[in-house]
Amino acid sequence: MIPRADSAAAGVHVPHPEPRGFWRRYVFSTDHKTIAKQYLGIGLFWAVAGGFAAYLIRWQLAWPGEQVPLAAWIPEPMMFGGHMGPEFYNVLVTMHGTIMVFFVAMPILLGAFGNFLLPLMIGARDMAFPRLNMLSVWTLTAASLVLLASFFVPGGAAASGWTAYPPLSARPEYTGVGWGQDLWILAVALEFASFLMGGINFLVTTVNMRARGMTFARLPVMVWMQSTAAIVFMLSVGPLIAAAVMLLMDRLAGTGFYAPEAGGQPLLWQHLFWFFGHPEVYVILLPGVGIIGEILPVFCRKPLFGYRYIIGATLAASALSFFTWAHHMFIAGIRNLLVMPFSVTTILISVPFALIVFALIATLWGASMRFPTPMLFALGALSVFVMGGLTGIFNGSAPVDIYLHDTHFIVAHFHYTLISVTFFASFAGLYFWFPKMFGRMMNEPLGKVHFWMTFLFFNLTFIPMHLVGIGGMMRRIADPTQYELLTGLQPLNRMITVTAVLLLAGQLALVVNFIWSLLRGTPALDDPWSSNTLEWSTSSPPPHDNWGRREPLVVRGPYEYSQPGAERLPQWQVD
Amino acid sequence: MLDWLPENASTYGGEIDSLFSFIYGLVAVWFVITHALILFFVIRYRRREGARAVGVHGHTLRQAAWILVPTAVVLLLDVWIDARGARVWELIKGSPPAAEVEVGVNGRQFNWEFRHPGPDGRLGSEDDLLADNTLHVPVGRVVLVTLTSSDVVHSLFIPHLRLKQDALPGRRIPVWFEVTRAGEYEIVCAELCGFGHSGMSGRLIAHTPESYESWLKETWPPGGPIAARTEEGGSATP
Amino acid sequence: MTLYTAEAARVAAPPAALPVSGKLGMWLFLASEVILFGGLIASYVVMRLARPGWAAESAHLSVMLGAVNTAVLLTSSFSIVMAHRAVDREGAAVAARWLTLTVLLGLVFLCIKGIEWRGELGAGFAPSTGGFWSFYYTMTGLHALHVTAGIVINGILLLLAAAGRLAPVGRRVEFAGLYWHFVDIVWIFLFPLIYLI
User: Fold this and answer.
1) Most CB atoms closer than 10 Å: which of A183, A472, C31, C152?
2) pLDDT band at C11 (very low <50, low <70, confident <90, very high)
3) Could you tell me the residue range of the domain that residue B133 belongs to?
4) Residue C165 counted as domain residue
């Protein structure tokens, strides 16, 4: 009988025996590694759904009103024998955004990578609150079920955009959507609860559960990024929860928070939403930058350049991100004297990110580079992120944004920034840590095919999208041919659809590789990449309590490659 | 990239376009520099027999200067972009010129309703013309729009004029423009407003002075009844 | 590769002072709650400043009942501090008594709130009546939900203490206390903002 130590004490891991039986091991597990895989599963499931929504959207834009191939199975009243109407188009754009931001990017980048790596990288045996961790992934599961259910209620799923601006979202008669919008609110609220619990777990773990010798200055950059993302999320999500409660009250209790006829203000929602919405994109971005920061040193065989400047810039950018939100609202009807201050803060946020980009590029200088799939995706992520950041400058300049706001230029911009981390950095991380997670290597040639298809078709899809946006194509329209101005853009729209379909098709290479490698990949060594961070000091996959009988002792920083006298010095080795 | 912009037909549109160009120039330079460096390093520093990586940490000031100096340059360029932007914003939104023609624009699922003042020059009086989806203005005169919405948030977007302003229910938002070239320009809605958002469009007809006079006489025949003849027109929206 | 035992590591250097995990976790949770209520209260303040008519609406509230509720919550914060003290000093039985008082006072708060709402609804002031009432019911409602959660948490600790099983989780009385103080402090902000001005 194991004495029950007070698990609330600092740094104390309550030892528990390895679970036996299918349910305890794979379904009701408190092991952070299993929970990470559950998050990964949820994220990949929704990635397929969100990708399919993107396919439907793009097909409709290219050939409006025509039958969409592979969509005949979608029942009425959503689609009619493969044809869609504008109502369902609005559902698709709403759900694509909601799914990708809340049910793909966050579960994969924070839930999967954060949960798997954080305890391992700091030398802990598990998170500070393992049962809270299990609760958080179950809450996300509940959120997923609620979101799925919203498709099947009368009136269909939410159709007011992932931004859900009232009055459109507040009164069912404006959209024809009833319970679907309420379930959307509930699903998003549950998702918030899940990541709030996760964020608390991450932060307490980072502070309290580090192994001996793991000072803050020796933390891998990934740990810094996950912790900062957790803080940013926790400090930004409150107003949106308040806004969501008010929206629900407007819909269910007849209050008038957002209804002008009742003395309310539609702009109130926009302020509260974007106060969260802008920091949120950095919550998604930071873990992706962390992945790039872990992978480059390994395959360059040199330290991450300017580690402390990267951390400082990250903290500065995160703080500044709380003061940029109204750049989503320059022409929304806000007071004129608010506009330029927000334009200034928005453009200034390029400064810390420029520093981070320069540091990552400087890591490449003087390197001895190898290019396995993780490295290709990390480099791809860097390139795509730079492009996304640069187009952000246009949008941050308020007068230029007068024209660009709510056009496809914006869509192209945020796909560059978000996909840099949600696709490229996530894939880099997947190929890199798959051996540690599953004990097998992924197939290299297929991985390279995956990379080139993704990089090529992503750019071919989204570079032209900037052009259709500049041409004036608005967001969230179901049929560009209804506009004289846009009919001339249809050839480009069709080309974008073709390359988008090829981009999605290219992901099959990952699906095949993932499944095949799980079943028959080469068994992985403890340290297949010759890497210095702590997770590589234990077996692939690690034992249930991560380290066996002995916990690691950390004696140096995480990126000591090509130092005088040694090609590499792992964090855990003593000279 | 800028060739894809619809042809500019407004006074301040040129300012926006030239700011766009300016930013494009700066951004293109950074794009080329960063990607050239990445490509060059990736080729130059491939793993080769006998060559070892240079294990610098980048923490000394001499090393860090390589990233701090470019960052400082970015900061200066940002300030420049903001300074130019502030001037253009002030021009467009800060102190609008005196209005010479006033019109009312109302968004309502899923039409634009345009209210033209009659010969009395006052909006909201009996002789106003209410037209769905077609807006008549003269070239070369400052037009002041009072933008409203009857239901949800819409957004008045006239691409050729580089004009965009959200229409909020319960608010009367002023926005102005001055057309430089006669012609017909598309007016669209740029904020998701429901299932009819796609196709919610209208026409701006910018008249030459002569054509404007004759339109005025047609709509409000002199000596005839005070009230305007109704005008049906513009693209019907389902 | 060599791993060193935790024993050897402990000899190497004394542990730095780290906050207790449960306490740190609770503070982080409360930080996010501050932003939640902060967002709601800030929205109320901004809307209120633009609408002088709301002062007349708030005159329909019972300042007396609000003040009594404030006293109730303040006393219950005191009693949970005493419970926390008792865990380490007088023991679980005394802690149980203080927790009982805390739970009862929480229930009294909810009852008085319920009486207020019934009166206001009966007088025709529903959430849909106007902007002030929308905020009033939403803010006090969200607060009441938090009070209820606190009562449940305190109740669980009370049952553990009464059954003599508090020892392994005695620290949690302190964390529950932190949460309960937060709920109290939110009310200290709500009361003047809604009732008094």
Assistant:
1) A472
2) very low
3) 101-219
4) yes
Render pLDDT for A542-562 as a digit per residue (tens, 0 to 9).
999 999 888 889 999 999 999
Nearest Cα of chain A lies from the Cα of C131 at a distance, in angstroms, of 6
Q: Which of C39, C126, C131 sits opposite A272 (nearest CB)?
A: C39
C50-72 burial: b if 16+ Cβ within 10 Å, else e:
eeeebeebbeebeeeebeebbeb
Query: Do B137 and B212 sit in the same domain of this protein?
Result: yes
Kindly report the pTM of this predicted structure: 0.93
Average pLDDT rounded to a whole number, residues A19-34? 88
Put simply, the answer to whether A262 touches C130 (Cβ < 8 Å) is: yes
Q: ipTM score here?
A: 0.93
Same domain, B192 and B107: yes
Q: Does C20 touch chain A (CB under 8 A)?
A: yes
For chains A and C, having 3+ Cβ pairs within 8 Å is answered yes
| Range(s) of the domain holding residue C60 | 33-196
pLDDT digits (tens, 9 = 90+) for C25-55: 999 999 999 999 999 999 999 988 888 888 8
pLDDT value of residue A5:
40
Tokens of A30: 């408190």
Residues of A in contact with C29 (CB under 8 A): 196, 200
- CB A352 within 8 Å of CB A320: yes
Residues B63 and B124 in one domain: no
Same domain, B85 and B155: no
Give the CATH number of the domain where residue C145 resides: 1.20.120.80
Are B119 and B198 within one domain? yes
CATH code for the domain in which residue B194 is found: 2.60.40.420
**pLDDT score of C131:** 87
Q: Is residue B75 part of a domain?
A: yes
Using the Cβ of A337 and the Cβ atoms of chain C, whether some distance falls under 8 Å is answered with no
Average pLDDT value for chain A: 94
| C53 is a domain residue | yes
What are the tens digits of pLDDT across the range C68-87?
Answer: 999 999 999 999 999 999 98
Instruction: Tell me how far apart the alpha carbons of residues A546 and A552 are, in angstroms, rounded to a whole number.
Output: 10
From chain A, the residues in CB contact with B166 under 8 A are 331-333
Mean pLDDT of chain B: 91
* Helix C21-49 × helix A221-253 angle, to 10°: 50
- So what's the pLDDT on residue C10? 42
A196 touches chain C (CB under 8 A): yes
In terms of domains, do B108 and B181 share one?
yes
Closest residue of chain A to B81, computed from CA coordinates: A397
Name which of A339, A391, A482 is nearest B199 (Cβ-Cβ). Answer: A482
* Minimum mean pLDDT range among A14-28, A46-60, A174-188, A257-271: A14-28
Quote the pLDDT of residue A551: 83
**Residues of B with Cβ-Cβ distance to A167 under 8 angstroms:** 151-153, 169
The answer to the question of residue B51 being in a domain is no
Q: Hey, is B54 helix, strand or coil?
A: coil
CATH number of A35-568: 1.20.210.10
The DSSP 8-state label assigned to residue B150 in this structure reads S
Among A304, A215, A219, CA closest to A535: A219
Question: Do both B106 and B168 map to the same domain?
Answer: yes
Inside any domain, residue B174: yes
Residue C164 within a domain = yes
Q: How many domains does chain B have?
A: 2
Q: How confident is the model at residue A14 (pLDDT cuts 50, 70, 90)?
A: low
The reply to whether residue B30 touches residue A477, judged by beta carbons under 8 angstroms, is no
Compute CA distances A9 → A208, A435, B84, B146, whole Å.
9, 33, 56, 63
C28 touches chain A (CB under 8 A): yes
Which positions 113-152 of B are in contact with A (Cβ < 8 Å)?
151-152
Lowest mean pLDDT: which of A243-257, B13-27, C41-55?
A: C41-55
Q: How far apart are CA A305 and CA B66, in angstroms?
A: 10
- Rounded Cα gap, residues B159 and B202, in angstroms: 12
Residue A378 has pLDDT above 50, yes or no: yes
B199, B237 Cβ separation under 8 angstroms: yes
Tell me if chain A has a CB within 8 Å of the CB of B173: yes
Indicate the number of domains in chain C: 1
Beta strand B129-132 with B173-177: parallel, antiparallel or unpaired? unpaired
How many Cβ atoms sit within 10 Å of the Cβ of residue C10? 11
Whether residue B107 sits in one domain with residue B186: yes
Q: For A416-433, how does the pLDDT look when each residue is reduced to its tens digit (9 = 90+)?
A: 999 999 999 999 999 999
